[in-house]
């Protein structure tokens, strides 16, 4: 029920006093976006004035925007490598931040094949918690009654390592779930999960998923929303149910937990809540044993009001599959964040995925925007156009996000391209357009053109002894199956038809490509099972010429035509698939360990 509060928000009537405060905070912060940005920059520059980095650029204690912009360069991760290395190797001096670097967050963006290491400081956890605390108050404006049930969220921790200097390196969500901010969060009736901490924090991904699914089934009537961080994660959970429902229903029927769940704290928790329930088991079995899984989420969790998953950016490819399994439940994209910094939230979370706009919260970091020309190849480094401040971006224009954070990134290019769709008060709202340089993505992996090229080169070495070479190639992220997988189309030129590469050799080529891909890809293949085996489809000779003819018939210039290294336009896919002569899958998992290669 909406409360009558003196803090009543123009976003809508808040559901409770605490929501009123959160909505008021959003209103205040977005109404004074520019002065909040001023304060944030001043705070960051004041506290870090004695750091090696700011001293190097002779900021001399200045905290104003003009001096900051005139003295500090706009940088990428590669520029910071020396500093990151020193911190990773144990240099505890104030290099980037006056506050001690508490750990590294390992981004899904990679550099030289390994996850980027993002320095962070303890207090960033408070900022992350603050952004999380705004999500439900906004959602409660649109979906009443969420305090009367629970959320079935599939949340996982991933492996962590230590740098040579002893700092932890792990993904931002692993860091968050393992923090007291999450583990000892106060009870909030609007934000109760079916998954216990014991399951979320279980490092074994099978046991964690099994327990979370079982808890979700046991509490099926109470589930009002179903979610995961990314769409691919929720689909992985559905696939897990497809594979494991016989055992799950047996556990429910008998009240005896699957012996494969060996984690002691998990067992202890599950033993407490698992009681024989043949009726529930039969009901779940009845749904799962049907051949047709259309609408399975809504059939099992009948009270679900929406799915909470990110389906913007690369995840948009999963919308049709999610619609299929959910029977068309609304998809809510609530927030936009990264390892470097949490950025903002969607103030209309129940809008259509194509309409999603994220409002950047001006208190999270100091934000600048590099105008982006959609059709250009980017600006040379020394002639970047002038960066624009948060409140000065223009509706309809595209920008690359540049951030200055409390943890010590200064004018750092995140690599995301955003389009301004409007403003909430004086804070702009952005449509996530895409991440720069990403060719292929299934889960959190991001493979760029150079990585694909290198993988093809490495794999094609195996063809030399057959006098065969790869004359052309392109790729496709096939998400029609769960998990999705990379498909690489190869047109081969063989000089010796009596000695052409066998299926076994082409399978080894698939594996060789996987070995060349970055560590996020290989982790998805090996540890997370979020990516299926890579497939090579060999196409008939002349196929790529046909592809060019097709492009030219649709208006491409013959002089400027370049083979697209990734395709997803249906007629092109159909053309390619109709020319396939053989298809080959990677026969084994590539090498991956949590340890970094360098
Ligand atoms: P990571 O550094 O691995 O945490 O990944 C962060 C990146 O994921 C961002 O820079 C975006 O490219 C992408 N991302 C995060 N949130 C969203 C979102 N809501 N929609 C689209 N892409 C997102």
TrEMBL record:
Keyword line: Ligase
Annotated ranges, domain GH3 C-terminal: 451-569
Superkingdom field: Eukaryota
InterPro entries reported in the protein's UniProt record: GH3, GH3_C, GH3_M
Pfam family, one: GH3_M
Domain GH3 middle: 358-435
Entry annotated with the keyword Ligase: yes
Entry's Gene Ontology cellular component terms: cytoplasm
GO MF, one annotated term: acid-amino acid ligase activity
PANTHER family for this protein: GH3 DOMAIN-CONTAINING PROTEIN, INDOLE-3-ACETIC ACID-AMIDO SYNTHETASE GH3.1-RELATED
Family recorded in the similarity comment: Belongs to the IAA-amido conjugating enzyme family.
Protein name: Indole-3-acetic acid-amido synthetase GH3.1
Species in which this protein is naturally found: Gossypium davidsonii
């Amino acid at each position: 029920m909406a409360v009558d509060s003196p803090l009543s928000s123009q976003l809508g009537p808040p559901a409770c006093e605490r929501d009123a405060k959160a909505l008021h905070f959003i209103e205040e912060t977005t109404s004074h976006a520019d002065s909040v940005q001023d304060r944030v920059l001043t705070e960051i520059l004041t506290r870090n004035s004695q750091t090696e980095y700011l001293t190097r650029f002779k900021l001399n204690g200045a905290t104003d925007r003009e001096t900051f912009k005139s003295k500090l360069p706009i940088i990428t991760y590669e520029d910071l490598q020396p500093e990151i290395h020193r911190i990773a190797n144990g240099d505890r001096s104030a290099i980037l931040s006056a506050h001690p670097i508490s750990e590294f967050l390992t981004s899904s963006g990679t550099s030289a094949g390994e996850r980027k290491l993002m320095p962070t400081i303890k207090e960033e956890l408070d900022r992350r918690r603050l952004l999380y605390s705004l999500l439900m108050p906004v959602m409660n404006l649109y979906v009443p009654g969420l305090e009367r049930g629970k959320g079935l969220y599939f949340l996982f921790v991933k492996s962590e390592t230590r740098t040579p200097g002893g700092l932890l390196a792990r993904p931002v969500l692993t860091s968050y779930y393992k923090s007291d901010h999450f583990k000892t969060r106060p009870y909030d009736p609007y934000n109760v999960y079916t998954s216990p901490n014991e399951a979320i924090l279980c490092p074994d991904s099978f046991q964690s998923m099994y327990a979370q699914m079982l808890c979700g089934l046991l509490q099926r009537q109470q589930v009002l929303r179903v979610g995961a961080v990314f769409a691919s994660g929720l689909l992985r959970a559905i696939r897990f149910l497809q594979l494991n429902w016989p055992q799950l229903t047996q556990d429910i029927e008998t009240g005896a937990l699957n012996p494969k769940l060996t984690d002691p704290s998990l067992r202890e928790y599950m033993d407490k809540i698992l009681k024989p329930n043949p009726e529930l088991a039969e009901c779940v079995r009845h749904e799962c044993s049907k051949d047709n899984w259309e609408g399975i989420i809504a059939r099992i969790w009948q009270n679900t009001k929406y799915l909470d998953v990110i389906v913007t950016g690369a995840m948009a490819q999963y919308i049709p599959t999610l619609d299929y399994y959910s029977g068309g439940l609304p998809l809510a994209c609530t927030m936009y964040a990264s390892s470097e910094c949490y950025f903002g939230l969607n103030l209309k979370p129940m809008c259509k995925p194509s309409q999603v706009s994220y409002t950047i919260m001006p208190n999270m970091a100091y934000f600048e925007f590099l105008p982006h020309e959609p059709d250009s190849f980017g600006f040379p480094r020394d002639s970047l156009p002038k960066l624009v401040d948060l409140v000065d971006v223009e509706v309809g224009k595209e920008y690359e996000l540049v951030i200055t954070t409390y943890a010590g990134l200064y004018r750092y290019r995140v690599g995301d391209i955003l389009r301004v769709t409007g403003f909430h008060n004086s804070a702009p709202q952005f449509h996530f357009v895409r991440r720069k340089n990403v060719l292929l993505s299934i889960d959190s992996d991001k493979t760029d053109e150079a990585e694909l090229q290198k993988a093809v080169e490495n794999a094609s070495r195996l063809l030399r002894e057959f006098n065969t070479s790869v004359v052309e190639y392109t790729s496709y992220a096939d998400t029609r199956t769960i998990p999705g997988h990379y498909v690489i189309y190869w047109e081969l030129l063989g000089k010796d038809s009596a000695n052409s590469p066998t299926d076994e050799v082409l399978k080894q080529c698939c594996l060789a490509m996987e070995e060349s891909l970055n560590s996020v890809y290989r982790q998805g293949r090996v540890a997370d099972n979020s990516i299926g085996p890579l497939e090579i489809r060999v196409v008939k000779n002349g196929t790529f010429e046909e592809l060019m003819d097709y492009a030219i018939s649709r208006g491409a210039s013959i002089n400027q035509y370049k083979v697209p290294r990734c395709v997803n336009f249906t007629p092109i896919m159909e053309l390619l698939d109709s020319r396939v002569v053989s298809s080959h899958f990677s026969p084994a998992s590539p090498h991956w360990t949590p340890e970094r290669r360098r």
